[in-house]
Amino acid sequence: MKKTIAVVCLCLMATCSGFAKSSREDLQSRIDSAQLVLKEIMDTSDKSIPMDILEDATCVGIVPGMKKGAFVWGVQYGQGVVTCRTGHGWSAPVFIRMAGGSFGFQIGGQSTDLVLVAVNDRGFQDLLKSKFKIGGDASAAAGPVGRSGQASTDWKLNAELLSYSRNKGVFAGISLDGTSVSQNQEDTELYYGAPHTFESILKGNVPVPAGAVPFVRSVAHYFVDAKHHK
């Protein structure tokens, strides 16, 4: 019994460590990792996000290395960044948390890169909330894959957000129903050195910090260029 309690405590401690206080260097590393994840995914021409989704995207969220694993309860958590399309390019990034869980006996763990794509204004509005649940507050679907092909039109009717995962080099759509997405206001304020609302940043009212310029340029390259190659 004591051994079981100890294992559960270790699991909970590991989960909490995912949300430990960040340094500015941690935040810059998170942005750099998000840029690398996007580049590696999009450079795989036959197994990436379809062109018509790139064209319609209103916001993009990337969570590098979201962790999943537990001993008694399935637990998943991760931290990432979001940028949104504005009337003059893509916005400066904000920081988000993702967390969820499932009951059932599990052993071990895994790390997965996640990509969220908001495909309409409703998805954009969801990202302005302080917290929402995928599949509950926001309709979501596993995103189709195949850069050169046309995606199924079902997502245009039924989804606000499309979700993708990359694990061990394999990129595919994934269902994230039940996962919560929340604003990480503390990290966002730390990175900018001043308090800004998510709305003001994502609507393009806050300049892109120098350290985030390469990330925003990468998003613009892959998502804006899609319109030029229609």
Nearest-integer average pLDDT: 80
For the record, give the distance between the C-alpha atoms at the N and C termini, rounded to a whole number.
Answer: 61 Å
The gyration radius over C-alpha positions equals 17 Å
The percent of residues in helical segments reads: 25-40%
Structural class by secondary-structure content: alpha+beta
Oligomer: single chain
Shape: globular
Total domains: 1
How many DSSP helices? 8
Give the SSE string: HHHEEEEEHEEHEEEHHH
Fraction of residues in β-strands? 25-35%
Number of strands: 10
Largest sheet entry:
10 strands, mixed
Low-confidence stretches: 1-18, 103-108
Compact summary:
This protein has helices at about 1-15, 25-40, 50-55, 120-125, 155-160, 185-190, 200, 215-230, and strands at about 60-70, 75-85, 90, 95-105, 110-120, 130-135, 140, 160-165, 170-175, 180-185. Strand 2 and strand 3 (about 90) form a beta hairpin.
Name the descriptors:
8 helices; 230 residues; 36% helix; 30% strand; alpha+beta; globular; ten-stranded mixed sheet; disordered N terminus
Question: How would you describe this structure to a colleague?
Answer:
Helix 2 packs parallel to helix 8 (213-228). The chain has 230 residues and is α+β, with helices and mostly antiparallel strands. The chain has 8 helices and 10 strands. It has one domain. The model is unreliable at 1-18 and 103-108 (pLDDT under 50).
